[in-house]
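Take a careful look at the protein record below. Let me know whether the structure tokens fit the sequence:
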Amino acid sequence: MTINLGEITALPMFAEARVLSGKSYLDQKQVEWVSVIETPVENFVRQHEFVLSTGIGLAEEDEGLLHFVQDVYESGASALALATGRHVYDIPKQVISFAENKGFVLIEMNWEIRFSDVIHSCMEKINHYQQEELKKSEQIQQRLLEMVLQGGGCSDIARYVMKQTGFPVLIADTLGRVKGESGCTTEHLMPWNRHRESSVTVAHAGNLHPLHKKMEKIVIGNASGLLMRIQSAGKEQGQMMVFSLTDPDDRETNLLEHASTAAALAFLKDSAIEETEMRLKDDFILSLANGEFVSEERLLSRGKLLGYNLTLPYVCIVGKLENLEDLFSKNQEGFASYQHWFESMIYYVSEEILLAGETINRRILTTIQESKLLIFLETEPGRNDLVNQYLDLLERRVSRLLPGVVLTWGMGQHGDGVIVFPDSYSKACVALDLGRKQRGAGSRIDYEDTKINRLLQSLSHDKDVQEVTMSTISPLVDYDEKRNMDLIGTFTAYHLNNGNVSQTARKLNLHRQSLLYRLRKIESLTRLSLMNPDDVFLLDLSIKIWSVGLKDGNG
């Protein structure tokens, strides 16, 4: 917040002064301070300083005066005013020519004007200007904060900044998703959307102002501009992009700082509202899944208040994010802890769940508990493909957010219908549990496809069945744990290939003799014959019951 040389030279005491060079630059040169300097200059002059001098000791030396002016110019001073009439009587042409060539403002003033009066008048002008600018800055800050406190958001802030600067403005969250903009066209928005999915090298806007350290010059597509980080309590909330603005003056810099503060407040306000709303919705959906409502009328009424239409048919999908800790260990930059990272990722995953539903024009009820995803997807009769279509889309979106993520899904029955949320949820949980046990992480299984596994799981609860099962396969389990030979997997592959040794060996990538050795070991440990159909049936059934209901110590 500084004045320029034009305003300084317009002061009454400079009425008889002569501007010898750089006259066209008067309105461009800023003045932050006034000082009196005689030779040598060294490092006693700083940038944007208005320097006064008598030229003492340089009266008879044209070269000495030239070197003095050169030193003042190279220090970054805005101008040099020489008092002539005592030590310097005439300023040589070569000095004036040097100053003119460099665009440096050189002023000749009368010796009789006291430097103390000049300094007093200039600093009074500078201080008055700074006070006025400070008032304007405070008014801008107050206006922006009131705007947010009265219900305004990022779009209102963007419009205000656009009006003040004349440049297009965009405000986005930490993932680059636009939360407000003003003056932006497709020429700005399309490159921005491409930019948010790629890394871009940026440079600090400058070192002349402390606030510049929060800014970065950036080029997006064919447009350049200034990117400012929106932060609160040491945590980044989002970004503000001002297109076409690359070298802000102090007034623009302070405007952007106040706008950034207001935007951080808007993000925090929106976050608080969203968290409250999400908590109410989470509690409602959990109650819905667990069947805790005493009447259908109360359920429909509560759902309507939260914006849910529960009179439509829904199918439940339960998912599991399998490898979040591994993903965090590979990419934890910018996060203080796993919990901090987890909360951020889960927030964005929940948004992707809703956005995927919007894409296929289906209503979604969702909540996330730890790493378990609970989704009720609006469905319709005869559309058994709808769930898989939705999950394909959702997995693509989540994979862009969390590259390498592994998702396992269990789905309720497609024809569950209206107001059967607990039943559909129970089926989806069964499908997820059985799918993870039988097919492992990353599988996707429908409740309809779990009939055999449900039968086996039911059998696993019977004491006699448990005894027969464990007595049959315990020798194989113990041997596999000690020798790591996977005899159970060997038998399963052998049985799936209908007892064909050559085909099984190829499938397991084993030498034929190695496979035969394993098969003989299975027979000796279990005392069963792989040539006897009843023994083969018993061993196969025992392995299936064990893997579904007893493998992890259940039953």
About this structure: The first helix runs from residue 5 to 9. The CA atoms of residues 171 and 240 lie 4 Å apart.
